[in-house]
Amino acid sequence: METLLLEKSPKYNRLINVLAVAIPLVVAVLLGIRQKVDLGEWTKILPHVNGVINTLTALLLLMGLYFIRQKNITAHRRTMTLAFVLGSLFLVSYVLYHLSNDSTAFGGNGLIRPIYYFLLVSHIVLSVVVVWFVLRAIYFAYSNQIAEHRKAVKWAFPIWLYVSVTGVIVYLLISPYYS
């Protein structure tokens, strides 16, 4: 199997920096649109799809860690690439849902309420931060800059795993309140 290799170039670093700022900004703008777009009833299943995507992403991240520790670079690369693809699909699905549906209010009371909001806020903040790290890790891996890849992954992996796992927990906590 042939492997995709990117050239080592400063233009990719600039592109990563632009995307790491543009993606969260575009998502924020799209989510800020108050007039919802009617994309159909099928969009009601997207939160559940996103819960599955976050679960699979977390599992793939752990599998990727396992494979690299076993020095199985091919399996690691495939697993992490799939995690990246799922993360991208999550982003599209998340935006489509929020463009076409009102946000769901959390109905829990007591101690679970501040726990839910802590997880939600930390999930959102870190999901913005992780974009830059993940894009760099992917670029460094595919441009065969392994030392730089390892440096990026020291930050990307734990943040990405936290975002994926808290995404699942937040989904499980709010799912009873979807109409």
TrEMBL record:
It comes from Salmonirosea aquatica. The lineage of its organism: Bacteria, Pseudomonadati, Bacteroidota, Cytophagia, Cytophagales. This is DUF420 domain-containing protein. The keyword Membrane applies. The chain crosses the membrane at residues 12-33, 45-68, 80-100, 115-135, 155-174. It comes from the Bacteria. InterPro entries: DUF420. Keywords: Membrane, Transmembrane, Transmembrane helix. The keyword Transmembrane helix applies.
